[in-house]
Amino acid sequence: MVVALEIARDNLISPIVLFFLLGVFAAALKSDLAIPEPISKAISLYLVAAIGFNGGVELSHVGLGTSILLAIFCAIALSFGLPVVAYALARRFTGLDRINAAATAAHYGSVSVVTFVAAAAFLTANGHSYEGFLVGLLAAMETPAILSGLLLAGKTGNSGGNKFRRTAREVLLSGSIVLILGAFAIGFTTGDKGLAVMAPLLKDPYKAILAIFLLDMGLLVGARIRDFLKMGPALLAFGIYMPLIGGTIGLAVAYMLGLSLGGSTLFAVLAASASYIVVPAAMREALPQANPAIYVTLSLSVTFPFNLLIGIPIYYALARLTIGS
Fold first, then answer.
1. Torsional sign, CA 274, 277, 278, 281
2. Does the chain have fewer CB atoms within 10 Å around its N or its C terminus?
3. What is the pLDDT of residues 138-159, one digit of tens each?
4. What's phi and psi for 254, nearest 5 deg?
5. Ordered structural domains, the chain, with CATH
6. Residue 171, pLDDT score
7. Half-sphere exposure of 10 (CA within 13 A, CB side)
8. Helix (H, G, I), strand (E, B) or coil at 59
């Protein structure tokens, strides 16, 4: 417990987290501080390209193998299975109806790219590396959760199936997925030679740009404070204990896969995070009767800040206890 508190304290005073908190407070105080949307979009694309490329370079050092394919299978299974757990808990303890519980549950099987990026930066700051193929798992865990959510909602008939196929295609061809997979492939193909060329752009400025992006995320979260305050205690609690459950399951799978300390932490983060970009867009299309004020507020205003401020250090401390330092 003492180790976890020390790690959490160090995380809270890191520039990345402090910029996020600055954004939250600025928005809550109704400051006119804002990052123009085109710049925010450009920063988001930069971060996705950087994490994909650097992950591909790391994978080029070890190549593809059975263990990596097994990890991909486990990631897909987690993405499909975690919404089932989230759905059962949401129905039992929050009072959500079937449709809203299913839409909410889908978010907790998918992933948050920003949380993954922040966790990777946290590990780097603490001197830990991680397996490069985890970036591929990030992409693999986007879509299965959407299918799982639609199955839980009972949308598997003809019209529901057509909606799912259309939604899944849009997700797979979304800019962030295409960019992260493409950058990953380029990094894997070019290896260290490619890194030498791209490092001044995709490696050196990475942390500073991430801090500015989290300032923007903080502004977005701070602007939803009123929605956050309207949520009942049962929903607020769900937004905190569900990532802890997912992270614990992810850590157990990482242990079975034999991942490193850094890799185990990131795998736990993947299982603990909740999508607030891809899945909300998919749910608006496939489950229009679900209430976005519930699932967007939970994933963005509760689970995302919890993971960023407290969750990542907890998963890291648990990985240290499980894997060793």
1. positive
2. N
3. 878 877 888 888 889 886 544 5
4. -60, -40
5. 2-323 (1.20.1530.20)
6. 61
7. 14
8. helix
